[in-house]
Design a protein that fits this description.
There is one protein chain. The chain is an alpha/beta fold. It has one domain: Metallo-beta-lactamase, Chain A. Helices cover 20% and strands 30% of the residues. The chain is built from seven helices and 16 strands. Helix 6 (209-219) links the parallel strand 13 (192-196) and strand 14. The longest helix is centred in the last third of the chain and has 11 residues, at 209-219. The N and C termini lie close together (6 Å). It binds zinc ion (ZN) (2 copies). The site of one zinc ion (ZN) has 6 residues, from helix 3.
Length: 262
């Protein structure tokens, strides 16, 4: 059995948003306090981090993450990679580079944004590699972490290609807007689908709630958990709305700290 922990379920600004006085941002409910999006997968004593936003230090301390066996990066936007630098602590603790699975397009962008991480020689000191990059491309999208098999697939957020994956009967899809119908074949008979949905209003680069419901209903997993939620989504009232609608009976909002078994 595996375990999923939601380390963060917010959008790129998280919530509360700096300076915002909206209902969600002023709320004292723990369900409305969202860090940047990330999950931890634990299976067979392996810890696998999915995405590493700017809140990773806080998340690692809050959820007591002292060991990482692998990192999966879905794409190279700020809210998914801005914490890369903070992972060097794991290099020190584990004394080796961290295995990192990502698309070749994503690695190219990371090399541009974090050029210093790839310098071998800094002022005469040899810098040991922080990451052991395992590059995935359309011909090879599946990979194994120890004996755990991840079946990868891709879709799009505007023009950017994003990596999603399935492990056993659980699938993870974030920052999706456009996709080819053939990915639905990989998503049959799921127990759990984690899916991003930004807000109720339509947005150019994310599913809104309606689009997420429509997508989930094509796949029909036993349960769908929505994440990457912007502050326009107030947890308690939206959760009630989802519960009432027939089309979203098996769809819930995720929240920071939620744990699921798969
Ligand atoms: Zn707000
Ligand atoms: Zn994002």
């Amino acid at each position: 059995m595996g375990k999923i922990t939601f380390l963060g379920t917010g959008s790129s600004t998280a919530s509360p948003v700096i300076g915002c006085k909206c209902r969600t941002c002023k709320s004292t409910s723990k369900y409305n306090k969202r860090l940047r999006p990330s999950i931890l997968i634990q299976k067979n004593r392996k810890n696998i981090l999915v995405d590493v936003g700017p809140d990773i230090r806080h998340q690692a301390i809050k959820f007591n993450i002292n060991k990482l066996d692998a990192l999966i990066i879905t794409h190279a936007h700020f809210d998914h990679i801005a914490g890369l630098d903070d992972l060097r602590i794991f290099n020190r603790m584990q004394n080796k580079p961290l295995k990192c699975y990502l698309l070749k397009e994503t690695l190219k962008e990371i090399k541009k944004k974090y050029d210093y991480m790839f310098e071998v020689n800094i002022k005469g000191h040899t810098q040991s590699a922080r990451f052991d990059f395992q590059v995935l491309n359309e011909k090879k999208l599946s990979f194994k972490v120890a004996d755990i098999t991840f079946e990868g697939f891709t879709y799009f957020q505007d023009s950017k290609k994003v990596l999603g994956f399935r492990v056993d009967d659980f699938a993870f899809i974030t920052d999706i807007k456009r996709y080819r119908e053939k990915i639905l074949d990989k998503l049959k008979d799921l127990d759990i689908l984690i899916l991003s949905s930004l807000r109720e209003e339509p947005t150019p680069v994310h599913f809104n709630i309606e689009e997420a419901i429509e997508f989930a209903n094509k796949i029909k997993p036993k349960m769908t958990y929505l994440t990457h939620l912007a502050h326009e989504i107030e947890h308690i009232s939206t959760a009630k709305k989802l519960e009432k609608q027939k089309s979203s009976k098996n769809i819930k909002l995720a929240y920071d700290g939620l744990k699921l078994n798969f």
